[in-house]
Prior knowledge:
- By secondary structure, the protein is α/β, with parallel strands linked by helices.
- About 6% of the residues have low confidence.
- Zinc ion binds next to loops.
Amino acid sequence: xxxxxxxxxxxxxxxxxxxxxxxxxxxxxxxxxxxxxxxxxxxxxxxxxxxxxxxxxxxxxxxxxxxxxxxxxxxxxxxxxxxxxxxxxxxxxxxxxxxxxxxxxxxxxxxxxxxxxxxxxxxxxxxxxxxxxxxxxxxxxxxxxxxxxxxxxxxxxxxxxxxxxxxxxxxxxxxxxxxxxxxxxxxxxxxxxxxxxxxxxxxxxxxxxxxxxxxxxxxxxxxxxxxxxxxxxxxxxxxxxxxxxxxxxxxxxxxxxxxxxxxxxxxxxxxxxxxxxxxxxxxxxxxxxxxxxxxxxxxxxxxxxxxxxxxxxxxxxxxxxxxxxxxxxxxxxxxxxxxxxxxxxxxxxxxxxxxxxxxxxxxxxxxxxxxxxxxxxxxxxxxxxxxxxxxxxxxxxxxxxxxxxxxxxxxxxxxxxxxxxxxxxxxxxxxxxxx
Length: 435
Ligand SMILES: [Zn+2]
């Protein structure tokens, strides 16, 4: 899944590089019959209006090389969908002032559901990736499918209530799941990871209940997608996103699109083996990254250091990620040591990732990133000795700024990508009904 360029959000564009929509249009045009050609032209114009936000028909014709009459006819169709609106007269270079067309970010709403192993979050966004409402509750998703589905329904009602948008305004639902999604079965949750869900068709249930298209993907993939469209990856085409929590997930963007691998497993950074003789992982292997930097590992390392008698403000209470991070901010020696070790282990894993994949950006998210420099400084130090100079020279390691709703935003973004790509199921029907 790739996103069109947003000229206003990107820093200085590379003059040698053509916008992606143009390359696609030129590459596919010769093979198209007349009706497909019109659809393709409409897709190109819709994307250009979205990325430029404001543009006249004459500028559209100039940018795309399409005839003015073709642009006008397609613009009339787009105005009917309410996705595009007329904004009034723009500047003239002589002669009549042109009417400027704009993309209507508020025309429709998108729902993003972030279903983790132990939480459910639901966001509603506009068509520019702005989260209008976001709610999250802890829940035993892994073992309670019926309760999870009920909670999703409740949260959808609540987020819509908070925006005063009705269900009719929604274009589709994006769903993030805490398991790999097999490209051969794109609507199914993995029963290996979520065995209790084997009798439940979540995508089908949501489709039936809400009468909307539903798009499912892995949660870390959708975190990566959110960074590509709206976050740290907005001006790059190759990024690795790491979600550091109870588990450690990863999502890869390669050449501007999500890379899933043959069976949807790509990005399972948490099961990179760092120590073949290490602790047993839930996956059955030993010494995986998650056994060293997952939340359970961090807590047990802190408890181990406390048992050795080291002075610490953590002593006397149950250690959790929250208390650990609080202690890091007061320079507690035990907490800082745990985070430093995690940074070093992550550094080893990311060094391997840089040598393999050479991304522009590595974006870290999840609770432990709140430790800030305490985590990233030892991490970057480890890269120096372990990643090839040329593999790390241009790579930035950043902490995500999208916040807790990032994965839900990525889930909703799947719907926007389908809309702009004109592949949204029942697109014509939905848009006309909503008008
Ligand atoms: Zn493992």
